[in-house]
Write a structure and sequence with these properties.
By secondary structure, this protein is mostly helical. It has six helices and no strands. Helices cover 72% and strands 0% of the residues. Helix 4 packs across helix 5.
Length: 110
């Protein structure tokens, strides 16, 4: 066993704990995703085509974390977080973080 093995194991454990901590938010997103067929495509907030990492970033954005905080939590570069966020915004049909937060909160309250 070497140091790299322990480092990767620690990172994976940290990711798993992050998912456990955000389990209720993930269920809300998945439940919301199931209800999306009731709304026209332009009103959809969460799409099935979000990757696992994009879902993790979306959860962090919904928790009002900065890109820098997200990058530290997920062990990725801040530019990578920005790229994931950009993909999330494109896939959900919004232009920026503010619209994503407002749109999700507005649609989820219905």
């Amino acid at each position: 066993m070497n140091l790299a093995f322990y480092a990767i194991t620690a990172i994976e454990i940290e990711r798993y704990l992050y998912l456990l901590e955000n389990k209720s938010k993930m269920h809300k997103i998945f439940d919301w995703n199931k209800k999306q067929n009731e709304y026209p495509a332009k009103d959809r907030i969460v799409y099935e085509n979000l990757t696992k990492r994009e879902i993790e970033v979306a959860l962090s954005i919904l928790s009002n974390q900065s890109y820098k905080e997200i990058s530290k939590d997920l062990y990725i570069a801040e530019s990578t977080v920005s790229k994931h966020a950009s993909n999330i915004y494109k896939k959900t049909g919004v232009k920026n973080r503010r619209q994503f937060l407002l749109g999700f909160r507005k649609k989820f309250k219905k």
